[in-house]
């Protein structure tokens, strides 16, 4: 480890002493391109709070970005120029892992260009924006395709009144009392971690802090701080349902965002000195991999009846809830999960201006089976983060298909998941056979 850290220090020292901009006749190298990519990302972040989701690289680079706010047009020209130089690097001369590194940088730069266009006032369609930022063009079903699922759930929930209201009344019974929330969440995260470390080796000093917050449009967030450390926040604006404990524990923690960021830092930034993995721009293909793998991590960590056994045996008693209802609660949750694609269809119609916000809220109540308050929160998220929502459902589908193609055994599937989490992966990699890159 000491040798690796010394090598990293020397790499960063050389990078810091190099010129920030390549001259017109200077050939690009992956290391030089990576440094410029990081500097450009930090400069773009000065135009949009939240654009840089995490950064733990050289502090002087962040200080420089803050001290000189570069104009959007200048940044856009620099991104285009850097991508052009990157394409001039002969891929044939690269190892398999270096070729993945080059492709990753190019995909991230394409997203940066799109975001700069948006910051400058460009109005893109839902499809064009999703493709420009996250390198996917999702094929969405019409809302009518989800009506049979609603009918199936309707038949299972006796009573009168709108289906969303009956479903919400049933779900509300599983709310975790606020006094028990910390204990339930910590038990859930601990179990998610225990299941993850069976298959993926994590840094010995990895850790997280858990906080409960309010006034957010999201239900949970992982703020990665570097050095194998995360801040995990849970939003308590609305009661947290027992089903969210495992979801959030896996998604924000293990094998989700916390593990992804740790492995990229440990194996690529520190292990190889690849500085591009010291920064995470939110609006980039990196997010599709992050959200898709975090969502798939739930079913990977809790296959088959494992989730029911853990929730009924541990979480329900901790929350003071009746374990006898756990089986039906999970069954209804799984049925509602079949409606997840409707969220994207509603988001597309809303962002493309085909429906109003009020209509989007009502459709979210109907097709996501949410209370007015939860539907409002969902549309608030869409209004703020826009096409970012594709990363949850579409990313999940891509990751699930890729990992499933690795084989039926847990060992094979966890190994495929680990490659996604620890290699320079882009969305198009997930439509290829599951193989590992060599050095």
TrEMBL record:
Q: Which UniProt keywords apply?
A: Signal
Q: Where is the signal peptide?
A: 1-23
Q: Which organism is it from?
A: Lysobacter firmicutimachus
- Give the top-rank taxon of the lineage listed in the UniProt record for this protein: Bacteria
- Give the protein's recorded name: DUF885 domain-containing protein
């Amino acid at each position: 480890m000491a040798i690796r850290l010394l090598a990293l220090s020397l790499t960063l020292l050389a990078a810091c002493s190099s010129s920030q901009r390549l001259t017109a006749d200077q050939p690009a190298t992956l290391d030089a391109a990576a440094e410029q990519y990081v500097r450009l990302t930090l400069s773009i972040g000065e135009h949009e709070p939240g654009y840089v989701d995490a950064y733990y690289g050289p502090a002087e680079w962040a200080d420089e970005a803050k001290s000189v706010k570069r104009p959007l047009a200048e940044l856009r020209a620099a991104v285009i120029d850097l991508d052009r130089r990157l394409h001039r690097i002969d891929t044939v001369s690269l190892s398999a892992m270096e070729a993945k590194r080059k492709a990753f940088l190019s995909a991230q730069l394409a997203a940066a260009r799109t975001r700069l266009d948006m910051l400058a006032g460009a109005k893109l369609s839902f499809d064009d924006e999703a493709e420009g930022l996250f390198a996917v063009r999702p094929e969405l079903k019409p809302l009518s395709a989800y009506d049979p699922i609603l009918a199936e759930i309707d038949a299972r929930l006796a009573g009168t009144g709108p289906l969303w209201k009956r479903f919400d009344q049933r779900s509300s019974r599983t709310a975790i009392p606020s006094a028990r929330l910390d204990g339930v969440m910590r038990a859930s995260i601990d179990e998610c971690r225990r299941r993850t470390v069976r298959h993926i080796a994590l840094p010995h000093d990895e850790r997280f802090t858990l906080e409960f917050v309010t006034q957010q449009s999201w239900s949970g967030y992982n703020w990665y701080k570097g050095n194998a450390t995360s801040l995990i926040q849970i939003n308590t604006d609305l009661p947290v349902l027992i089903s969210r404990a495992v979801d959030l524990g896996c998604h924000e923690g293990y094998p989700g965002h916390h593990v992804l960021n740790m492995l990229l830092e440990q194996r690529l930034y520190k292990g190889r000195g690849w500085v591009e993995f010291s920064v995470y721009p939110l609006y980039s293909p990196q997010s599709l991999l992050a959200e898709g793998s975090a969502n798939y991590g739930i079913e990977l960590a809790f296959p088959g009846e494992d989730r029911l056994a853990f929730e009924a045996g541990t979480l329900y008693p901790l929350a003071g809830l009746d374990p006898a209802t756990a089986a039906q609660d999970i069954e209804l949750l799984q049925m509602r999960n079949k409606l997840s694609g409707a969220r994207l269809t509603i988001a597309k119609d809303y962002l493309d201006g085909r429906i109003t916000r009020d209509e989007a809220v009502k459709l979210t109540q109907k097709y996501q089976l949410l209370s007015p308050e939860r539907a409002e929160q969902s549309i608030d998220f869409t209004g703020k983060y826009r096409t970012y929502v594709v990363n949850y459902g579409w990313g999940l589908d891509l990751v699930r298909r890729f990992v499933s193609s690795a084989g039926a055994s847990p060992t094979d599937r966890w190994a495929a998941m680990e490659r996604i989490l620890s290699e320079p992966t882009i969305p198009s990699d997930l439509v290829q056979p599951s193989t590992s890159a060599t050095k």
